[in-house]
Amino acid sequence: MKPTILVADDEPSILLSLQVLLSKAGFEVRVARDGEEAIQAVEKATPDLILLDAMMPKRDGFDVCQTIRANPLYRDLPIIMLTAKSRDVEREKGMALGATDYITKPFSTRDLVNTVRKHLGSG
Question: Of 7, 24, 89, 123, which is most buried by a Cβ count within 10 Å?
Fold first, then answer.
């Protein structure tokens, strides 16, 4: 069975490119277009990993990360934050709220796939 990745991002072009990239890399991909959708998607069917944009409407990625981490069921669920902000303070905030890793946009597609595989234990 393919590992499932939930990609949460409000930018349609990024969602589409990540969907294509990760599908080609052998993953099943589900998408969420805002923070509320991301939380609902996790509750509906827990993915193996989440790629979570920091800046989204309704609830930002930091809030989503904190909400997911508050549930003991998702304690070991890898969450990789995606953000255009490379400032250390943003990274530290994400990590403090429970993010597993952090990728800054724009990112190398190979690096992103390698990071995903690393956290799924398949690379």
Answer: 7
Please report, for the chain, the start and end positions of each structural domain, with discontinuous segments joined by +.
4-118
Please report, rounded to a whole number, the percentage of residues in the chain having pLDDT higher than 70: 96
4-118: which CATH architecture?
3-Layer(aba) Sandwich (3.40)
DSSP state of 39: H
Q: Decide: pTM greater than 0.85.
A: yes
pLDDT surpasses 60 at 89: yes
The upper half-sphere exposure of residue 68, i.e. CA atoms within 13 Å in the direction of its Cβ, equals 38
Distance of CA 10 to the CA centre of its chain: 12
Q: How many residues does the structure list for the chain?
A: 123
The distance in angstroms from the start CA to the end CA of the chain is 16
Burial of 65 by CB count in 10 Å (0-12 exposed, 13-18 middle, 19+ buried)? buried
The Cα 16–Cα 40 span in angstroms is 20
3-state secondary structure of 31: strand
